[in-house]
Design brief:
With about 375 residues, the chain is an alpha/beta fold. It has a single domain, classed as TIM Barrel (Alpha-Beta Barrel). Helix content is about 35%, strand content about 15%. It contains twelve helices and 15 strands. The strands form four sheets. The chain has an eight-stranded parallel barrel with strand order 3-4-6-11-12-13-14-15. A two-stranded antiparallel ribbon has the order 1-2. Helix 4 runs parallel beside helix 7. The radius of gyration is 19 Å and the shape is globular. The two termini are about 35 Å apart. The chain binds flavin mononucleotide. The site of flavin mononucleotide has 20 residues, from strand 4 and helix 11.
């Protein structure tokens, strides 16, 4: 018998603190792109409704927002580089705040995960190597294009764009920002040897490959302070054509984590974390502040307990907070369902991504109806 039974109060529901922010529970909504922003990238009214429905989570990490036009990944993606983007997110934060919640923004530059049909621009990447799979565009799924290799000027501009997006996020009422260095987007493309073939200061050794992540984190911290900055990583995750061998992970991530720890961001967020792995134990041992674990749930569907047992295991293995994605997507009141052990809604039709609209988005029922 495990430590958790349906009747005992779940450790996931105990309060926590993130710097000076009180969290009513340890459940975090993992960032999830849902492609419902306005064509400009401004957060829509529908998005405000979606997030406000989920305000009982301890913390919401908003879906990825692009810090520049060229960083745009998919249609309907949110943005944070123009005044109307700030205004759109401000409305979301007002609605979530009124409902009792708090949010971090996630800043994501797509790198080679982008397409001229979507952004009007040739994507930028550490090296001119195309994503080896088609990508969703306004014209359907299209073969990826060969990205342009970033020069030092592009790198400087990207660092500045992350910093400016962080400033906008705070102006928009976010409690902080998460720098997205996971899941095969630009910063992860710099970390991984198969996407970064550079021979300058940003490529080659692990120290050179992690340099851009550290530069971005430094620039963002300089803008808004370490207590408002989190970082997301996904060591070894193969999303978006990333290849990191066990050796690559070993050579880079422990070093990256200690270098990040020295800089003092308020949290580290590990996507697709395995709490029983040696890597997780090393991460916990070398990270001194809040650690968020996003456990691996079955791809085919969320468990009947909404991720409760997997989440409690993460806490037992040293996580401070637990991020869940699809369980919150399908259950606005997941916290309450976990509290009383109620059954959860399953996720419907491929999350109804790319299609826009309320169906499969704001129409998941709560226990109250
Ligand atoms: C619809 C959808 C959109 C996602 N978008 C993002 C995103 O914008 N940024 C990100 O870091 N991860 C994104 N992810 C990954 C999730 O944050 C999470 O790591 C993943 O879904 C695994 O957690 P789960 O099994 O609880 O859903 C997305 C996942 C889904 C299902």
């Amino acid at each position: 018998m495990g430590m958790s039974t349906q009747n005992a109060a779940s450790a996931l529901l105990s309060p926590a603190r993130l710097a000076d922010i009180d969290l009513p529970n340890r459940l975090v909504i993992a960032p999830m792109t849902r492609n419902r922003a306005e064509p400009s990238g401004a957060a829509s009214e529908l998005m405000a409704r979606y997030y406000a429905q989920r305000a009982s989570a301890g913390l919401i990490i908003a879906e990825a927002s692009t810090p520049s036009a060229v960083g745009r990944t998919y249609p309907g993606i949110a943005a944070l580089y123009e005044d109307e983007h700030t205004r759109g997110w401000r409305r979301v934060n007002r609605c979530v705040g009124a409902a009792g919640g708090r949010m971090f923004a996630q800043i994501q530059h797509g790198g080679r995960v982008g397409h001229p049909d979507t952004s009007g621009l040739i994507p930028l990447a550490p090296s001119p190597i195309a994503l080896p799979e088609p990508i969703h565009t306004p014209n359907g799924r299209r073969p990826a294009v060969r990205p342009r290799q970033m020069g030092q000027g592009d790198i400087d501009a990207t660092i500045a764009d992350f910093a400016a997006a962080a400033r906008r996020a705070v102006a928009a009422g976010f409690a902080g920002v998460e720098v997205h260095a996971a899941n095969g987007y630009l910063l992860h493309q710099f970390l991984a040897p198969n996407t970064n073939r550079r021979t300058d200061v940003h490529g080659g050794t692990p120290a050179a490959r992690m340099r851009l992540v550290l530069e971005v984190v430094d620039a963002v911290i300089a803008q808004i302070g370490p207590d408002r900055v989190g970082v997301r990583i996904s060591p070894g995750n193969t999303t978006n054509g990333i290849i990191e061998s066990a050796r690559d992970v070993e050579d880079l991530y422990p070093e990256l984590i200690s270098r990040l720890d020295e800089r003092g961001p308020v949290y580290l967020h590990v996507a697709f974390a395995d709490p029983d792995s040696g890597l997780w134990k090393r991460i916990r041992a070398s990270w001194s502040r809040t650690l968020i674990g996003n456990p691996v749930l079955p791809v085919e569907g969320i468990p009947e307990d909404g991720g409760r047992v997997a989440g409690e295991r993460m806490l037992e293995a040293g996580a401070d907070l637990v991020a869940l994605g699809r369980p919150f997507l399908a259950n606005p009141d997941l916290v309450e369902r976990i509290r009383i052990g109620a059954p959860v809604n399953a996720v419907r039709e491929k999350y109804l991504m790319y299609v826009g609209g309320a169906t499969g988005y704001t129409d998941y029922p709560t226990l109250a109806g």
